[in-house]
Amino acid sequence: MQRIVVSELKNGMVTARNVLSADGKLLLAEGQIITESYIRRLQELGIYAIYVRNPYFSDLEIPAIIAEETRQSGIQTMKCALDVLRNKRMDLAVTDIQQSARRIVAEIIRNRKAMIHLTEIRTHDDCTFAHSVDVCILAVLVAVEMGYAENRLTELAVGALLHDVGKVRVGQQLLIKPDRLTDEEMVIMRGHPWFGFEILRTHKGQLSIPSIHVALQHHEKFDGTGYPRGLAGEAIHEFSRIVSIVDVYDAITSDRPYRKALLPHEAYELLQMTGTQHFDPTILPIFLGKIAVYPVGATVRLNTGDIGIVTSVEPGLPTRPVIRLILDQHRRLYPGGSTLDMKNHLTVFIDQVVDGTLLSNLI
Ligand SMILES: [Fe+2]
User: Would you list the domain boundaries of the chain?
Assistant: First the structure.
């Protein structure tokens, strides 16, 4: 399968995965033949990219940290809980959220060796629910690596799921605004950590203090330049120090109406550059060690001039993946395909990550 941006889709291509909206509704089933009207509909819905079948990549399985079903059910739980809260009908459904957190934690413990491959397709509209679940998954993955026991992981997972709960008090127009926010709007948006803290404080009996503090502290930075209180170093709770890293990673690797998502290797470099000031210097490398810099399915150009796709990544060797060579330096097809395991060819390097569409146009 291959990830392709919607504007590059052509009649007759076939979906390789279910295409879901931000709230988990099925838009196109796997195996669906793409038509012009589907392309228009996807564009209207703000879907940026989908997975299509490609004979060269048909056997590629992109490993997932948790089952898509678990992720979708987490998104649904968050959507129900926050919709109810937004409409001020009743209190936050803490028990449902705790149940989702426990399910996510249990699955991640089972898949603790997995790397983070960027496979998600996000929409342009309000993706707070999907974002909460993804932040939770990434935070738990880091904490497993840090040796947290299951109870503490669940406490962190609940805090991560609820980190942006304060956004229910930020107007919907602001959350889905397609342009950058004005200074005044930014002040309102930056109120969400306090709003979240106030909401969660009323559930003190059910939620632990560290979980509640994730909402308040997840925009604090290690060097004290964050908000709302400008806390620095270990004055920021460890849960919040973990969530702040994965929150930024998830945001920069998601498409926004005013900018394209960064690719994993770009996000990796950005975090490495800004990371030492903004994030806990002991936690950041743990997170970076879990990112598949060149995820399965990425199209890459090697210093030999060959172009190929990443077919697997070994934990601990993020920059030496296994590559299926597709085109040689003269843009000729490799007959029958050829595999290169970069850990056995130390003079070969990845020069560039190329747009996958480019490859499908060449072959
Ligand atoms: Fe936030």
Answer: 2-57, 68-288, 299-362
